[in-house]
Structure to design on (546 residues):
């Protein structure tokens, strides 16, 4: 446990020393909320959105953005770099299992995601009066499922790419379509029906819908939850199968 | 006391046989060299000993245990090729973190002083020079106070000065009682450091001896070059059984032969009252022994 804590703290330090990654993970989603919230019409209730405001939708989208940054952009690059540089290989010669390092990294990613999410929710609540999830249990469940789904994909990418750079590129290529379906550019509520149906089956689209459900007071819908569990199972399985230590 | 025993080790990657049949033992307190050209199976052999790869055949015992036994990680320090650290980790953090992995870690501050890293504690890994990275890597291999240290190609990529400094360091480590397995393809390094050597070629041990024994055991050919103070007939030299060939390079004579060649040549010269100026003797080196054993140069 002492070693695990030390590894996790070390990973956190290393993460914070990478200014670009840590900025995009920790602050960018909140900045997005601030920018959109500063547009007066986005703070007006809209009949198209069933009386909700655009900023209400974007808080859950910003939470998904946080998870996408952590799991799809940062995680594959970091993990593939560790393998490429032989960090895992070196660790395998010590009494500490490389699995412990992976665990520490997941813990670090989890901490970063929770901090960034808390910041998004706090700014949304304080600055723009966005209600905190009235179904808190549902929100936690949706958050965990979305995190697990996105991380499974990120770990799969980390397992199959040859280098850290390739991990970064693949992560970026995946990031845009996945975030599109999560509503970053057009919230789900205003997407055409066809796109909504597609979004329901994408990991971040399903995640955003589940988080949105919880924000408005209901438990995540069964379809989104099933889709997320499916992504965890399939990508998690292939990530574990194809992972190489060196 | 035997600390490592390798018997009929075999390891293949698919159809490629990396190690065909390797056997040797390493005794406590010695520096044991594994010498061979690139691709000979040296690294695979030490990876099997370190427990990073499972052997396909044969047996390995390290301190009486199977290399897969994780308790060995506390007793065996390993410095492998292609094993790095995160770029932004500082030297101090790396040492502090890795020392927390071991039951009885060495004092890393003392270790950094011995390794000349004392000034670099706050430097991040990416900013270290090749030699400094290598020394840090050695420090991490020694940080658990191991009984055995396995060092793979530890001076590859270092400049000659850094290489010599590293050799001094390794001798210091051995003096502190650690058994060292040193993988290398540098003859000079093997000759200088190793008590015994296994020469590995194409996955097999082709010789196992002390460096001096390897050199002495070969059909040694010597070369003597000198400038005679007066003309001398080649036939006088050729008449001696030790002499095989006589060549002339301008005013210089080169005599090639075996046995006590120097004595043969000097006695011919003395009888003819000739003095040899600029006398040079080229004796066989480990390099030559290696070429004779493997049929190729280590640089190939």
């Amino acid at each position: 446990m002492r070693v695990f804590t030390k590894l996790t703290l070390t990973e956190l330090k290393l993460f914070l020393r990478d200014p670009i990654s840590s900025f995009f993970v920790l602050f960018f989603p909140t900045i997005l909320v601030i920018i959109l919230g500063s547009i007066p019409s986005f703070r007006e209730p809209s009949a198209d959105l069933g009386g909700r405001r655009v900023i209400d939708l974007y808080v859950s989208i910003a939470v998904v953005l946080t998870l996408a940054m952590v799991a799809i952009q940062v995680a594959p690059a970091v993990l593939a770099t560790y393998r490429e540089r032989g960090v895992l290989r070196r660790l395998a010669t010590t009494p500490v299992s490389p699995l412990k390092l992976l665990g520490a990294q997941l813990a670090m990613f989890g901490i970063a995601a929770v901090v960034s999410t808390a910041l998004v929710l706090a700014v949304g609540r304080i600055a723009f009066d966005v209600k905190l999830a009235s179904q808190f249990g549902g929100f936690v469940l949706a958050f965990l499922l979305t995190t697990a789904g996105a991380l499974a994909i990120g770990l799969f990418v980390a397992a199959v790419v040859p280098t850290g750079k390739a991990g970064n590129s693949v992560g970026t290529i995946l990031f845009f379509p996945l975030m599109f379906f999560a509503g970053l550019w057009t919230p789900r509520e205003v997407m055409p029906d066809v796109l909504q149906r597609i979004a329901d089956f994408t990991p971040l689209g399903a995640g955003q819908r589940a988080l949105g459900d919880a924000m408005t007071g209901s438990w995540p819908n069964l379809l989104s939850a099933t889709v997320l569990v499916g992504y965890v199972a399939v990508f998690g399985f292939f990530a574990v199968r194809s992972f190489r230590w060196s | 006391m035997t600390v490592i025993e390798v018997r009929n080790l075999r390891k293949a990657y698919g159809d490629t046989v990396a190690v065909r049949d390797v056997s040797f033992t390493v005794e406590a307190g010695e520096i044991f060299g594994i010498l061979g050209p690139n691709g000979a199976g040296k690294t695979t052999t030490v990876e099997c000993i370190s427990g990073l790869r499972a052997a396909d055949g044969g047996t390995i015992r390290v301190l009486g245990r199977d290399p897969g036994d994780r308790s060995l990680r506390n007793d065996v320090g390993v410095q492998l090729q292609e094993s790095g650290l995160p770029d932004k980790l500082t030297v101090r953090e790396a040492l502090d973190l890795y020392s927390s992995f071991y039951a009885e870690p060495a004092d890393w501050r003392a270790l950094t002083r011995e390794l000349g890293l004392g000034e670099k504690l706050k430097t991040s890994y990416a900013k270290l020079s090749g030699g400094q990275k290598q020394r840090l890597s050695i420090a991490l291999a020694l940080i658990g106070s191991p009984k055995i240290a396995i060092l793979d190609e530890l001076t590859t990529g270092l400049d000659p000065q850094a290489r010599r400094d590293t050799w001094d360091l390794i001798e210091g480590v051995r003096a502190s009682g650690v058994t060292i397995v040193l993988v290398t393809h540098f003859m000079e390094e093997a000759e200088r450091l190793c008590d015994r050597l296994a020469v590995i070629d194409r996955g097999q041990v082709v010789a196992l001896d002390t460096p001096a024994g390897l050199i002495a055991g070969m059909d040694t050919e010597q070369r003597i070059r000198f400038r005679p103070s007066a003309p001398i007939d080649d036939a006088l030299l050729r008449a001696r059984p030790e002499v095989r060939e006589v060549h002339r390079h301008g005013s210089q004579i080169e005599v090639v032969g075996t046995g006590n060649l120097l004595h043969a040549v000097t006695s011919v010269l003395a009888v003819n009252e000739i003095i040899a100026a600029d006398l040079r003797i080229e004796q066989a080196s480990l390099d030559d022994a290696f070429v004779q054993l493997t049929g190729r140069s280590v640089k190939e």
